[in-house]
Amino acid sequence: MTRTVSVEDRGFTLGDGIFDTALALNGVMFARRAHLDRLCAAAEAIGIRAERPAIETAVDAALLPTPSILRTTVTRGTGARGLWPSQAAESTIVVTAAPWSPALLGQPARLITATAPRNERSPTANLKALGYLDHVLAAREAAERGADDALILNTGGRIACTTIANVFALKDGRLVTPPLREGCLPGIVRALVLKIAPALGLEVDEAPLRPAELREADAAFATNSVRFLRRVTTLDGIALPERADDVVARLEAALRARVETECGADPRAPARTTAS
Amino acid sequence: MTRTVSVEDRGFTLGDGIFDTALALNGVMFARRAHLDRLCAAAEAIGIRAERPAIETAVDAALLPTPSILRTTVTRGTGARGLWPSQAAESTIVVTAAPWSPALLGQPARLITATAPRNERSPTANLKALGYLDHVLAAREAAERGADDALILNTGGRIACTTIANVFALKDGRLVTPPLREGCLPGIVRALVLKIAPALGLEVDEAPLRPAELREADAAFATNSVRFLRRVTTLDGIALPERADDVVARLEAALRARVETECGADPRAPARTTAS
Q1: Helix, strand, or coil here: B95?
Q2: Which residues does chain A have within 8 Å of residue B124's beta carbon, measured at their own beta carbons?
């Protein structure tokens, strides 16, 4: 596996690329097709020629039997100078695996509201692009204020996401998450929750969401592919209601069931299942 | 000189770093102190511990006798997972040199207006951060529309910059460029122009600038450290006035004089001067 890239790689020099983060259990990447579909669509959107078979091969080579976080990065490669190269170069594909632990599941999140807004009108607002510095700085704000993550608003003051997750609010049986035009990523677990929820008797809606609506919700949670569903317990130091813990627990269980079906392991005890 | 970086380097994985681009002639980086002051201030702003002496040493090692574009990149290094690492790791410093040619001087620029705005409220709006994908995509728009560069507006519809340059408008002896709060970088040549212009009888002003003001100006130009001063001849296909060509020429000459004094070479013929 490639452990280095050229200092001329446009991923390094210009953040000119996109990436994906996924959970792998038992040597199986969960929701693999959805992850790689999204990655390839993003590459196409920014004009990077990346062949799907080459990405699939790189992912296969990185898969481990142990629980892992697979990170797949695709960049525009090592091109000539100039922001928009006149000729497309070969893209760079890098897949790395880091250990994943079930301890990442079930941790509640205290959020603060990040100072700076996310630009929902950016052409990269819906892409998992490499340029994460704004979110790194929002994560610093969260750490400095004793929180676990930062809620990021868009330029209209409505919720976009957190630094690493999509955001949901549940109110009177209606589950709301911001639509992509609000500046969030098309999260894989976000899509799964929207798909699973109706079977649990919930109405789902992609609609603009204001911070005040989190405070008035029956429950709020954040989703991503490493932690799945994470309850939001406080926002800027104020406790959020937890009136719908049972509903959130049922959503969590439904997600876990999908992982177990697909990967053959309960994510809460993947090592045991693997050993059996 | 390091030619590769780890695939775990946060500059590659998250665009978690900043950079600088400068011209070097005769083995001398032009405006070196200003460039490295800005780079170190940016590193400090985002919490990267980078020692100035280490950066100076890396720059010295990359300097060539031939005209070069020196690019200095500083990243948060190869850290643990997580957006905001709990412990600061050693930063990565990379300096590369690419050939520079006097042919880059004096080329006029046809601009188009980029579709998407720049987020002037981002904590990185005034930093030369690695995440340049939005500007890469604006440069693509320019290329697709037969232009040389793209004018980038902020979320208020006022001028921030181009994909690679600061923007100036000259009208009735008054030279205007957007203030930093409009979302532009504190360009080194921008600062020089603001410093030089009064001695040429111009009033200088950092003030919000609308695209319409470019159309009504006596002259408009863009500045950066590789091309210095570049006249803007058209905006979205419409010719801009060129009533103040003499003033622009005097600004260009004053900038060249500063380069020659500092580097001992006329940038228009650096090789000849070097050989003499």
Answers
A1: strand
A2: 133-134, 137
Over residues B87-134, the pLDDT tens digits come to 778 999 999 999 999 999 999 999 999 999 999 999 999 999 999 999
Contact B7 A4 (CB under 8 A): yes
Task: Kindly state the tokens that stand for A140.
Answer: 């610093």
Whole-number Å distance between alpha carbons of A74 and A92? 6
Which chain A residues are within 8 Å of B15, Cβ to Cβ?
A: 15, 130-133
> In which region does residue A8 sit, left (phi positive, over 0), alpha (psi from -120 to 50) or beta (all else)?
alpha
> What's the token pair of residue A276?
């059996």
pLDDT single digits (tens) A127-153 = 999 999 999 999 999 999 999 999 999
Does B134 sit within 8 Å of A122, measured CB to CB? yes
Cα distance from A133 to chain B (closest Cα, Å)?
5
- Alpha carbons A164 and A139: distance in angstroms, whole number: 9
Q: Are the CB atoms for A267 and A259 separated by under 8 Å? A: yes
Record: contact A7-B131, CB cut-off 8 A: no
- Pairwise CB contact (< 8 Å): B129 & A129: no
Structure letter (DSSP) for residue B78 = B
B57-100 confidence digits (pLDDT tens)? 999 999 999 999 999 999 999 976 689 988 778 999 999 999 99
The full DSSP string for A157-213 is SSEEEESS-EEEEEETTEEEE--GGGS----HHHHHHHHHGGGGT-EEEE----HHH
Chain B positions touching A143 (Cβ under 8 A) are 84, 86
Q: Tell me if A26 sits within 8 A of A46, measured CB to CB.
A: no
Interface test with B, best of A3, A12, A140 (most B CBs within 10 A): A12
Q: Which residue in the set A14, A137, A163 is minimally distant from B46, CB to CB? A: A137
Contact A161, A183 (CB under 8 A): yes
Q: Do A118 and B118 touch (CB under 8 A)?
A: no
Taking contacts as CB-CB distances below 8 angstroms, the residues of chain B near A183 are none
Q: Do A86 and B2 touch (CB under 8 A)?
A: no
Residue with tokens 């610093």: A140
pLDDT at residue A272 is higher than 70: no
For A189, the token pair is: 């677990």
Task: State the Cα–Cα distance between residues A91 and A51, nearest whole angstrom.
Answer: 9
Indicate if ipTM > 0.90. yes
Helix %, strand %, coil % for chain B, to 5?
35, 30, 40
pTM: 0.96
Q: Do B12 and A11 lie within an 8 Å CB cutoff?
A: yes
- CA–CA distance, B67 with B29 (Å, rounded to integer): 10
Are B218 and B176 contacting, i.e. CB atoms less than 8 angstroms apart? no
Domains of chain A: 10-100 (3.30.470.10), 109-263 (3.20.10.10)
By CB atoms closer than 10 A (0-12, 13-18, 19+), residue B199 is: exposed
